Structure formats: C-alpha cells, structure tokens
C-alpha cells in the first residue's frame, strides 16, 4: 500500500486535509486497517471547487484530439497496471481477484470509448422554417462537475463518470465512497501521468459527505452532479441541487426481476442467474433480487441454482480459488442476515446457505431461498448480498404485474426461447435495461440507466457524453 496515494488531490497536487484529519480504510476480509487517508472537510472541498472552476475555461478550449489522447494514454496505463489495480481494489472492497481484474478491464474501456467520442462532438446548421434565420447549433461543456461514486465498483464507476467529463471538456471534483478511496486516488495519479492538466480532476476523500457536498451543490459554481448510489441519498442530493438548478444524472437503486418462463433453456437460465446474482457478491444495483420462475420448472431451477451456488468457494478475495469474497462491512452483512431471517420466518425454504460463518471478516454464504412469501422484506429492498429468492408464477400477465410492482426500474432479466414472448415481455417491463437470455447487461458501449426511482439520465454508450454537454443556438439572419 506504500505506493498508493493517501492524500487529497487538489489542483494537481497531493495535499493533506486542511485540519489534518484522516480516516481508516478497512480490509473487509479481515477487519484490519489497511491504511489511513486524508479526511476532507468543507474547506478542502471549497479549494477543490476553486481549482476546478479556475481550470474550466482553458480546459473547455482544449482541442478535442488532445482530450482524446489523454484518455487513450490513461486507458493504456490502466491496462498495463491491471494486477496492481486489481489487488488494490480487492484489498479495500473484497471482491475476488478474478473479478477485480475484470473490473479493471471494464473501467479502462470507458476511457477508450470516450477517447473516441471526444472527437465526435458535433452541432448543426439549418435554415429555420420561416426562412428568415439560419440556426447554428453548437455544443459546449456544461461546466465544473461534482462526481460521487459508490464503493461496489470503485474503479469502473470513476471512469464511467470521468471519461465523458474529460471528453466533453468539463472539470471535476470527485468524491469517492469512504469505504473505497484508494482506487479513486490511484486513478487520479494515472490521469496526472497521462497528461491531464492540473485542476481538471480533483479528488476529495471524506467521511463527512454531507458537509462536503451540500455547499458545493448550493453554491452555484458546480453546474453538474453525477451520482451513483442509493435512491434515498439520490433524493437528498436532488433536493440540494434544486437550489442552484444544478443539472443532475442519477444512477440509483434497483430491485431487478429475473423471470424464467416454462419454455426457457434452464442451462442458460441458471448460467444467467449466477452472473446476475453473484457478480460482486450480489452487491450491485443490477443484481437479480426477485426470481420469478414458472411453477412447472421452479423446483428444477431451484435445485440446479442451489447446486451451483453451493459449489462456490467463499474466502478472502486474494486467495487462489476463491469465488465469493466478503461483503463490504458488518452493517451490510447484518442487513442480509436480517432479510434472510425474515423470509425464513415467513415460510421460505433454505435450499443452500443461510448461515453466517464464524471468524473474522464480513463473509456471507451464497444462499438460495424457495417458496418465498411475496410480503417478505427482501422483496421490497435491494438485498446487496449473495441471496437468490425464488417465487413461482403461472401466467405472463401475472408475472409482469408482479415484476413491475416496485418503485425501482433499473434492469430486468427474461429467459424464454419464444421470440414473440421475449419482445412482448421486454417491452412491458418498466425498466431501463433488459437482459434477454443473459445475466449481464453492463457494457461501456451501451446506455446504462433506469426509470422510476432508479434514476435520471444514462451513462456510457453514444449518449453518455450528452450528460456533460449543453446546446447553444445561434440565430443568423439570412441575407
């Protein structure tokens, strides 16, 4: 850990918190402290904001090709340091090294993708219908941004926000989750090495999120907020953003339905379930929470899924052969324990798992519950753990109604071999993304986001850069 920055990154310099405060970074596999990092306060946030505002005008004028090449160099550095970054990520948040390496590749791809989008920002010229004026459309950066990232994908959620901001010509203040600050600090060091000018990216690590973020949102100089996290926090940030009419992008919670019809290929369905449920130990907003399985195949699906889940190896993510690492902290594990206990009390059958192991760390075993009561608490919340809850259904209209009976609408998964049904059900699901016979929808080239209380806007894809650009219309008289 000695080579990893632990200070704040403001104006291109590594600095301590102004009051000298630090906060610990824990290893969730052992409960031990890995290191301490600077714990920013409001004064530090104001300095970071000032650095971003000061750099904005010149950065906005920087040639798109220059911005593109900086992102491309950063992409190459990340790929070169895959193992180093994977070990860092595993240490601070627990995911197995194989998954961490996968996230490094995923994170890097956002930089490569937006390095290509940086040179494709266009406008338009047209004569207006009355023939009196020409309409000249140009696109310009929205301005300094506040980026708030979660702990579950600490590197990829950083690049998914930083990439389009850099490409669009926006400066940034990045506030990573307090559980996983090291990945973001390492990313800042890589971007500096890649040639990002001082002040374009500033990183404030803090345990005092409210004190740090609210003044930035209310002050009027931050013009864009991009947040990934819980719906409850997102609602609070939206309220704070309203004061200065800050433009917002929100990637919030999910409660994904996983629907298996009677004609589904069960091999595909179980494979998809393993990905949709167990990616990142189930600590993902895209995680399948509610498994709706047609009554005729529910028993067989449950048996196969329990067999696969029970075969997974639980342990520290740095250990060879481990499939499932620890949950992020004891609070997260306690939530999972309580949700499972409630479901069992209501009559759910435990097909595998369901008992917290003894010993250090925040481990919880892969768990499959069958015959789950729809009134169980885990049906109405993000589980954020390795728990698959199976419910049965009898007809299509019924399962669509139940799948949509949630305030969230991020992603849904549908398994069927019938093309008409696949399209029909996908169109009726109230979600922003659908995995059709697949358990993985995330891709830097695709627009990621949800509907209802799962958020506003999209990240990634051709439209991802739009969140960081404004249109300007210039009326030019026709001579």
Automatic annotation (TrEMBL):
Q: Does the keyword rRNA processing apply?
A: no
Report if keyword Oxidoreductase is assigned: yes
CDD domains tied to this protein: ALDH_F5_SSADH_GabD
Q: Which GO terms describe its molecular function?
A: succinate-semialdehyde dehydrogenase (NAD+) activity
Q: Which SUPFAM superfamilies match?
A: ALDH-like
Query: Record's PROSITE patterns?
Result: ALDEHYDE_DEHYDR_GLU
State a single Pfam family of this protein: Aldedh
What keywords are annotated for this sequence in UniProt?
Answer: Oxidoreductase
Q: Which InterPro entries match?
A: Ald_DH/histidinol_DH, Ald_DH_C, Ald_DH_CS_GLU, Ald_DH_N, Aldehyde_DH_dom, Aldehyde_DH_Superfamily
**TM region(s), chain numbering:** none
Active site per the UniProt annotation: 251
Its domain of life reads Bacteria
State the Gene Ontology BP annotations: gamma-aminobutyric acid catabolic process
Record-annotated Aldehyde dehydrogenase domain positions: 14-472
Family named by the database record: Belongs to the aldehyde dehydrogenase family.
Q: What is this protein called?
A: NAD-dependent succinate-semialdehyde dehydrogenase
